[in-house]
Amino acid sequence: MSRGADHFVFETDRPPGKATRYSYIEPGDAEVLENSWLLIRDSKTGMGRVRRWSPSAIDAKKGDAQLPLGRRLVREAWALEWVGVAPGTEGMTGRRVMVLRTLHRGNETEYWQYDPAERVGRHDFASLSKLHHLGVEVVSAKLADDAEESTLVVRASPVERATRAALGAALGPGLYVFDDGLRVLFEKNTSCAMSVNGPCECSDYLETTAELQGEEKRFRDAAAGIRALGHGFRWNGGLLTVSR
Question: The whole model's pTM is what?
């Protein structure tokens, strides 16, 4: 660890051959690093403190929950964590933000930089598969000079963003849920390849992610059709049909 005039630097030990990560912490800010350490820098003295960190859930039922820095809120298969106070977009905005992240079924999904100066305080977090979502609303938030004295109250719950669909129907790109619990994300994506003799060559392709009872499959379009998770998937004219 070392301290400079403008930042606090923390270096973690890594196995040989792997890169070392550094964290630059401004006075008054804090950050969870490598999922093992909580770094905090005093706003007045500039001195940094480091302590071991491990995820610890707060005892909160449904409704509003006061989420302390470095703690997590659990909602069914989701965990919401407040993991830092830092300059927004790594200092580019010039404003301090609260950094929140989510995990779904233990897998880290995404981060959200919430600026208490802005009125908008709602965000949908998506799972890695984009089949599930957690809706988060900031009820109240206050940034203090020292990160640990900042306060955050949130309301979070799983939200349904899928459209109900029937087996046998021709479906365009979108997120769907069927009566038997099958969840399907049908996407149209573009793939581009570099060419040494000319411009990039791009082509569209269809991709489907499906989940049933916790088992997930992902596959690309196939006119002949595919069977997975006890269902048939067939693409025709850019549309997807799901059958038994």
Answer: 0.83
